[in-house]
Amino acid sequence: YKLYDKEPEAAKRNTAIHEAGHFTVSRFCKSYTDIIVSFVSILPTTDSMGYNAFEFDFSKYQDSDKEYFVESVATDLGGRAAEKVLLGKVSAGAQSDYEMASNTVRQVVASLDLNEKDDASVKINENMTSDASIERVDEEAQEIFQEAYSLALDIITKHKDYVEAVANILLDKQVVSADEIKSYKVEKNGKVTIKY
User: Fold this and answer.
1) pTM > 0.70: yes or no
2) Which of 45, 152, 158, 178 is 20 to 30 A (C-alpha) from 119?
3) DSSP label at 35?
């Protein structure tokens, strides 16, 4: 708590909006159900200002399709989208999420056949040297990335009051279980009341 107490209020709010964005996108995705947020924190660690702690159900991973990976990347970009929509700017923390999501998409496109085109998807391996193959992977990755970021922006825009409410809960408590967040009722103006 010492690091948190030293943070400026604006930085705390930015982190709360960011983490609330990740939580909100994961909550409102349709097929990304094997990833469950167990709790959300805005307490800084050695390598982040806050985080969502995820539990993963590996049994569902085998049946993953393109929609699943789009939603997975959208969740990675949920913090960035929340900052953009609610704060009008993007922080350095959102930049690291962006880079992580970009790398994930490229690896997925390179190793799995997720394209919906008639031709075969290009696979990358250590022997691949064709500039055309690399360019093709980059194009497919960019399409999935843009689709994911658009989904994140849509969810955040549609549920802006919810993001604001989750951020307010985080600012009040710093660490909150997902079940506790879900027990609150969010009103139109972002005001939070407890559901009974």
Assistant:
1) yes
2) 152
3) E
